[in-house]
Write a structure and sequence with these properties.
The protein is mainly alpha-helical and 507 residues long. The protein has helices at residues 3-28, 32-45, 89-106, 113-131, 145-149, 174-190, 196-215, 220-228, 240-254, 257-266, 298-311, 319-330, 355-374, 388-403, 427-430, 447-451, 481-484, 488-503; strands at 87-88, 137-142, 164-168, 273-277, 283-287, 340-341, 347-348, 379-381, 384-386. It has one domain (29-503): Glycosyltransferase, CATH 1.50.10.10. Helices cover 48% and strands 7% of the residues. It has a 3-stranded antiparallel beta sheet. A two-stranded antiparallel ribbon has the order 4-5. Strands 6-7 form a two-stranded antiparallel ribbon. The longest helix has 26 residues, at 3-28. It is globular and about 65 Å long. Mean pLDDT is 92; it is low at 1-28.
Length: 507
Amino acid sequence: MDGGNVRVQLRVLMVVIGMMMMVVGRVTSQDYEDALTKSILFFEGQRSGRLPPSQRMTWRKDSALNDGTGSNVDLVGGYYDAGDNVKFNFPMAFTTTLLAWSVLEFGQFMGSDLQHALDAIRWGTDYFLKATSIPGTVFAIVGDPYGDHSCWQRPEDMDTPRTSYAVTTTNPGSEVSAEMAAALAASSMALQASDAQYSLTLLNRAAMVFDFADMYRGSYNDVFGALVCPYYYCDGSGYADELIWAAAWLYKATNNQSYWDYVLKHINNLPQYIKRMDTDGMPVSGGSFAEFGWDSKHAGINILVSKLVIDRQLNPSPFVLNADKFACSILPESPTKSVAYSPGGLLFKPGSCNMQHVTALSFLLLVYSHYSNDAQRGIQCDNFAVSPSRLVQIAQSQVDYILGKNPLGMSYMVGYGNSFPQRIHHRASSLPSMDAYPAHIDCQGGSQYFETENPNQNLLIGAVVGGPAADDSYVDFRTDVSQSEPITYINAPLVGALAYFKAFPSS
């Protein structure tokens, strides 16, 4: 071999090694505070309605200012759940519940970002007060999902119908109603210190909406199946978990014994195995103790209630036992592990938009680690015990992967780090802003912005996308919805996790 070529190859190799070392150095030390700030800022990009003077993501403008008009009710406000322009109140309520839980557990670590987190919660609860303002009625969807999904259009320009869909005493939807009650109850606690009167309003409404959800039981699938099934938010786990979840939050907020009695009465009626729906509309079966997300609340119930059970030395069955089983189902070394891990270490569960599982389950691990550590107890996985700190390690590995400690050396949070997704599946982000192009863009007029290989025109800072495939590969293009779409309930639990690691970066 020619000596000159060898020297060139060696120089190239050294450059590559140097670059790799720089990347490793860059991604192994995360700026959790910056990521926290951006993860909360993302919610401002998802706002619907009339934006306040404090709006920081200024390329977004007022939108959907006539929502609810056709039903003679004001339904302006709330959040668009993902990259579309429909308001699905079921996942929106779950998002708000998780934001509130994040503040309740880790708000003391948020510093100046705490107020922005509270603002994000209140943007949701202001809307839920509107959506539950008529007794015997809970509004569940605003917008036409199929019409909206056929257009690539800014929310500021929407031409598609803004129909309001409600569940009622004769057409009940316990899932969405109970989740809204949970959101209102959790938020009442998160907002109590900053606005006691508003907090009381939320709590009173939570109790009213829970009574409605419980008294008039039924699945909103039966009412809105054509709108939410199979590709949107079809509930696959039933509504019993949402009712217990809401009762647990109401007990935490009120200390009213009747809510605790409700939890105890119904918890053993939950099925041990459930069939949830992934976001491709495909059924996925598994142990209910291991499930947590917008559809299934089982693991969240067990962990939320476990603190009460542990602190009061009550019967640990089934809450603490199932919480332990959940934690063990995540640990890579556990004999009862029920999740997979990519070669680069990212947790995977079946279905699309995998990051929703990564952030929600990581948050639960942190919360349960906190509860277990306070009680000075280990987590029992069959024949071996795991320390609470091990749960923190797993959660941190997942957060670090999201922020760039992965085989591609890229962050999956838009605007964080030097390399992040540029072509996310998000209408408002991909289309020119109203400032840049004030003329109306109709339903099909935005197609060119969807199809272009150019990066999105507006940075949806803080948005976390669906994430890479199981082999750690990532397609940075809008057409790959599963990988490139950001969703509010990916970010909500991540807010809490980032607050924790901001305070304890060397966990």
